[in-house]
Amino acid sequence: KMGYYYSLYEWFNPLWLSDKKRFVSEHMIPQFKDLVTKYKPSIIFSDGEWELSDTAWKSEELLAWLFNQSPVAKEVVVDDRWGNNTREKHTGATYTTSEYGSGMDASVTWEESQGIGHSYGYNRNEKLEDYKNSHDLILMLVDIVSRGGNLLLDIGPTADGRIPVIMQQRLTDIGTWLQTNGEAIYGTKAYKTPYQWSPGKMREKKGQAFMSGYSISDKIKPGAEYAHIENFFTSKGKDLYCVVPSYSTQLRLRDFKVAAGATVSILGCNKPLVLKQAGKDCTVDLSGIKPGDISAELFVVKLTNAL
Q1: Strands 275-278, 263-266: parallel, antiparallel or unpaired by DSSP?
Q2: Sign of CA dihedral 247, 252, 255, 260
Q3: Distance between CA 277 and CA 252 in Å, rounded?
């Protein structure tokens, strides 16, 4: 479905600079309604709200029109950026937003917004090391979905509309991984816990929805002192998906009692696996799986009818 980004204010519009009230009433609101009426977006990502309150932007009036009178009233979803007092509040918003942040959890409907590099638009000054590699992008997607979120990955075209080759390569790699493992992403919900941690001390997590420096890649690396993430979880109906960031000969799900009749498989792999209940834990023997049997470093173990 089609959606668009809409900035409430225009940085250098003469009317905005001279008369903000007139800009809102005579330019922004008519333009917004015209765009919605003509192009019928299913998603609207509002931004540029920080200069004024939702009252000054007339956001309540605008959203009332959108959800009751517009041609997309029955299906449109919007974010939480409708005034400098509305972020992370459900005052008309369908979902909340995090931007290069540490994300949120399944208690709210949320979306993480990031570029492949440090910039949203194409930035010719960015070097190779400024771009996330394919593995880290897939890991970021898995992390966000395991916590009930949606990933909005920004692709910045060049001035003449081309997608840079490095971005094409990253997108192709993500698509290849999803061809095999997308079942664990699309249409899933957060499980009761997003991760299984190894034993060890937990690092302090400082939640921040903007430029937090959060890196999920650091949290899967084993260390002598601190716990690391062993598995990510998503669920769909009675099925549990375990995204495994690194191979070991045995998958052990601690404090997990599997339902009677459950079966186990690896997405994209036809080799039979055995699921066992070992006291409070559930185990899957992976010793027969060879490197060529699985499609990627991050692979998915599916427990069918396990919940």
Answers
A1: unpaired
A2: positive
A3: 10
Query: How do residues 211-250 score in pLDDT, each as one tens digit?
Result: 556 788 888 988 878 899 999 999 999 999 999 998 989 9
**CA nearest neighbour of 65 among 75, 56, 74, 73:** 73
Round to whole Å and give the CA distance between 176 and 174: 5
List of domains in the chain? 3-184 (3.20.20.80), 189-304 (2.60.40.1180)
Question: Which distant-in-sequence residues (6+ apart) come within 8 Å of 277 by Cβ?
Answer: 257, 258
pTM over 0.85: yes
3-class DSSP state of 151: strand
β-strand partners of 151: 112
Q: List pLDDT tens digits, range 255-293.
A: 999 999 999 999 999 999 999 999 999 999 999 998 788
